[in-house]
Amino acid sequence: MNFGLIIMLVLLHCKGATTESTRKILAGMDVTLDCPFNKPDHVPLMKVTVEWGVMVDEHAVQRLVYTFQDERPMVHRVGSWVDAKSLLQGNASLHLLNVSVADEGVYCCRVIITPNTYKVSTRLEVSAKPVISLPEAVTVMEGEKRTLMCEITGFYPEQLTVTWLIQNGSQLSRGVCTGMATPNPDGTYSVSSLITVQATATESSGVVYVCHVTHRSHPGYHSKGVLLTVQ
Ligand SMILES: *[C@@H]1O[C@H](CO)[C@@H](O)[C@H](O)[C@H]1NC(C)=O
Ligand SMILES: *[C@@H]1O[C@H](CO)[C@@H](O)[C@H](O)[C@H]1NC(C)=O
Ligand SMILES: CC(=O)N[C@H]1CO[C@H](CO)[C@@H](O)[C@@H]1O
User: How far is ligand 1, taken at its centre, from the CA of residue 97, in Å?
Assistant: First the structure.
C-alpha cells in the first residue's frame, strides 16, 4: 500500500473510537498511550496493521505519528514506537519520547486484523512549567520609587495568572501592571509583570515582594520573592 493511501485511511480513522481518556504530562517527559486489542493466537504479525495518528482538536486534520504494516514500522514522529513483542500480545501501546507542547492533541490508534478493526483514542494534555525570574534583593533610597519586574517564561498553555503579595501578608493590586502573554518559537508563552513600590524606610525595608503564579502545570502555585532594603 502506498503512502498516499495510508494518509487517506488515517483521515477517517478516529471516527467511532470509543473511550476517550486524558493523559496529563509535563513537556520533556516520556509517555505510553495504551491501545489494547483482541489478537487471536493464530494470526501472524504480517496480518496486523497499526496506525497511530494525532489531531490538534476534534475538527482538525489528523497527522500520522506511527504506522506498522506488513511487519514494517514507519516512524512519522521522531521518538515514537510500538513494541513488536507487545503487539503479539494484543497491545499496540504507543511510546513517545521527550514530549513537547507540539505533541498535544487527541491520539487515535487503529488496529486492523481483517475483518476486524479496533479503535482507541486518548487525549494527551502537555503542560510546560513557567520559569520565574526576579532579582533576589533590591536596595533603594528612602523616598525613591522603584519598579520590580517578574519575568515568566516558557509556559504552556497560555492561560496563567500573576499576582503580587507581601510575604506573609496581603495581596497587592496598586501599581501592578501585567502584560499580554507572547508566543515563543517553541510553542510556549512568556509574560512580564511589573510592580512599582514606593520606599519608605519604616514600612518597606525588609519586606519581601512575592510574584505569585498559578498555572495548569502545577496544582498549587509557582512563586519567587524579592527582598527590598531601604537605605
Ligand atoms: C502494553 O505494553 C506496554 C509496553 O510496551 C506497557 O507499558 C503497557 O502497560 C501495556 N499495556 C497493557 C494494557 O498491557
Ligand atoms: C527534548 O526536546 C526538546 C525540544 O522539544 C529539546 O530541546 C531537548 O534537547 C530534547 N531532549 C532530549 C533529551 O532529547
Ligand atoms: C514571620 C513569619 O510568619 N514568617 C513566615 C512567612 O512565611 C514563610 C513561608 O511562606 C515561613 O517560612 C516564615 O516563617
Answer: 15
34 CB within 6 A, ligand 1? yes
CATH 2.60.40.10 fits 131-230, yes or no: yes
Query: Is pLDDT above 90 for 154?
Result: yes
Our answer on whether the CB atom of 32 is closer than 6 Å to any ligand 1 atom is yes
Please identify, by atom number, the ligand 1 atom nearest to the C-alpha of residue 83: 5
Q: Would you state the pLDDT for residue 8?
A: 46
pTM for the structure as a whole: 0.83
Pairing status of strand 94-96 against strand 222-230: unpaired
| The predicted structure's pLDDT at residue 114 | 87
Q: Which of 86, 84, 88 is nearest to 73 (CA)?
A: 84
> How many residues does this entry show for the chain?
231
Residues of the chain with CATH 2.60.40.10: 3-127, 131-230
Q: Report the CATH architecture of 3-127.
A: Sandwich (2.60)
For residue 157, cis peptide bond before it (omega within 30 degrees of 0): yes
Distance 210 CA to ligand 1 centre (A): 44
